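pasting for ref. prot 1 ->
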Amino acid sequence: MVTRTYRLDHDLGFAPNPYFGWCSLACCMPTIRKHAAVGDIIVGIAGSNMRGLGRIHPQLVYWMRVEEALTFDQYWHDPRFVMKRPRITGPKMHMVGDRTYRHEPQARDWSFELSMHYLPDAGQGALGGHVEKDTKVDRLLVGREFTYWGGAGPRVPDHLLELFPIRNQKCPPTGPALTELHDLCDIEHPAFVAGRPADWTNPKYFRG
């Protein structure tokens, strides 16, 4: 088991998406999506520019244990994840769906649903923007053991921040800091969805 850590720039409930029984990491973080193995632990904390948190000090946003790795086409066609297809008309839990990318029959280019990575009103690009970045690694991660705190996660002590560089890292396999981080996450007792996304009040993405 390897623990992989990173800092989130924002928290919409999209990447990761903790809803409908599975935590999924289907967008962003291509290095983690490419290299994480089944059984690995992924831990994400708030970065300093997460406006929705309204706090300076980093805090846990989520952890998950990788249960499966899938291609985007496998994810799109798997009936277990049908509820994760984005529905931008709402409610918010459906707006942040991440089951979006796939190939249509006989097509080479990616097809995609409107999602939080392609909202015309938010200034994102189409195939030249997030879609290209997300699909450069045709692999995503899902798991049923996780805790997602969103904007209500525990504070990360200063001495553990060495485990969280700006983007992502593979932590040392053992050591007191890693043990303390696992204890802080309480990885033996997943609490599933334990809070709301920090940026659900961000008018850039959500109205009302």
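and prot 2 ->
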Amino acid sequence: MVAKKWAVLLDLDQTLVLTDAIEPLRRRRAWFKVYNSFDQTAVPPGTARFLSKVGELAKLGVVTTSQRTYAERLLAYHRLQLPVLVAFHDVTQRKPHPEPILKAAARLELDPAQCIHVGDQISDIDAALRAGASAIALSWDGALDKGSVRGKGAAFCSGWDEVLENITALMRGRRTPA
């Protein structure tokens, strides 16, 4: 088996799992209600196929500002198994600081330059770029728009097929469209 020379790090909320329906509960820290409301969350269409395809090309991980217990339970609820999880309490500095990306890269035994971070917030892009990783902005709901990403040095995508296309381009040494 050939060692994978790349990692794809995914943000959790509103990227890997659509969680906007439970965000008010999370803000109130009503964790019992949050955990009992996971049925109001969903994985975006094509997520399993995307993870399968990208998993053939790269190591996978999740980098989130959410607490670990929540992240682990949400991933388990949706049967998403990614080998690395860097969560809120795993770092002292959170996105947009590069520490979470750097920690995930270290856990995957890769240089940050071999990592591609996919997220739905400007803080995701900033954290990736500050860590020396590549960044892909993904917006399922239009909360992040192409204009806000322009000039940041990140690709802007609205679905998994576009993300996979940009990941493949980056791995081949081609610059992604900003």
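Helices lie at 23-27, 31-35, 47-57, 68-77, 99-107, 122-131, 146-149, 160-171.
The longest helix spans residues 160-171.
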